[in-house]
Amino acid sequence: MKKFALTLLMLIIASTLFAAFNPAYSDYQFYNVHDYQKDKAYLENALNEAKDNSEKSEILWRLSRNTLTLTDDIEKTSENKQARLDGYSKAEALAQESVDLVESYNAYHWLASAIGRIGQVNGPLNSLGKAKPMRNLVEKVQNDFNADYTDSWYVLGILYNQLPGGPISFGDKDFAISYMRRCVDTQDNINRNNLTNYLELAQQLADRDWSASKRAKEFDKMQKKYNSISVPTEKMKYYEGKDGKNGKPFYSSVTLDKISDKQEAVMVLKYALAFYEKTSIKFDSDKSKLDEINKLIDDLT
What is the per-residue pLDDT for 10? Predict the structure, then answer.
C-alpha cells in the first residue's frame, strides 16, 4: 500500500511539473531547433494553463516573437500584403497584452519589432512614421530596464543605418555601426550562430569605407564622448570609440587604427564563417546568409 501511495505521489508531482510552463523549452524550440509551429502549439497550450499574470506575460511576448517570425516567412508579394499585416498586427497585440500585464524589456522589444514590421509592409512613408515610436520603445528596453539586450542593439543599428538623417529623421551611419558593434559584443554565441549580426556589421563598415588613419582620429574623438555619457542608448552611439584607436575587437589580432573599415569587414566575415563551421547550430535556412557573406568577401577582396 505504501509503495502504491508513493508511486501515485510521484506521478502527481511529475504531471504537475510537466504541466508547468517551461520558458527554457520554448526558447530552445525557437532558437536551437527553429520549430516555430511546435513552439506556437506549446505556448498556446501553456497560455490556457498560466498560473498568474507574470507567467501569462512571459508566454504572451514569446507568442509575439513566434508570430512575428512565422510572418517573416510569408513571401513578400503584393498578394500576401494583408496576410503579413495581419500577422504583424497579431504580434503587436500579443506584445502589448504582455506589457499591459507585466512590463518587461522582452515585451517592449517585440512590441517595437512588430510596429517596425507593420511600417515596412505599408511602405517607406509609413515606415518613417513608425521610426520614432519604435525607437522610443527600444530606448525603454535599454534605458529603463538597463537590459543591454543584443536584439535591441541590432534594431537600433538597423534604424540608424536605414533612416535618412536630419531634418527628415534621425539616421546616422556612425551611430549605427556603434550599435552593431555593441550587438556583436553582447550576442549569445552558445545558442545562436549570429550570421545576420556579423553580416550587418561588415556591410555597414564596407559602406562607410574609412581609411585606417581616419579611423584613428575619429575613434579618439568618440572615446571622449563615450566616457562622458551615462544613458545607455546615448552612450552606445559612441561605443565604437570605447577604447579609442587602441580598441581591438575579439575577431582581430590588431588594433582598430591599423586597419581600414573594409579590411575589418573582411575580418568580421571570415571570423563568422570560421565560427559557423565549429558550431552545432546549423539550419538549411543559413545557406542564403552564407552565400551573402561569401559574396561580400569576394566583392571586398
Answer: 41
**Side-chain-side CA neighbours of residue 228 (13 Å):** 5
pLDDT digits (tens, 9 = 90+) for 71-80: 999 999 999 9
Residues 169, 163: contact at Cβ < 8 Å?
yes
Q: Which of 300, 268, 266 is nearest to 184 (CA)?
A: 268
Q: Is pTM beyond 0.85 here?
A: yes
CA gap 261, 257 in Å, rounded: 10
- Residue 154: HSE in the Cβ half-sphere, 13 Å Cα cutoff: 19
Buried b (16+ CB within 10 A) or exposed e, 38-74: ebbebbeebbeebeeeebbbbbbbbbbbbbbbbbeee
H helix runs in the chain, sequence order: 2-19, 23-27, 36-48, 53-72, 81-101, 105-122, 124-139, 150-162, 173-186, 195-208, 212-228, 232-235, 261-278, 286-300
Closest by alpha carbon to 201, among 215, 221, 224, 185?
A: 185
Tell me, what's the pLDDT at 64?
98
Asked if residues 286 and 193 have their Cβ atoms less than 8 Å apart, the reply is: yes
How confident is the model over 290-301, as pLDDT tens digits?
A: 999 999 999 999
- 3-class SS of residue 284: coil
> Which set of grid coordinates corresponds to residue 219?
575613434
Is residue 167 reached through a cis peptide bond, with omega within 30 degrees of 0 on the bond before it?
yes
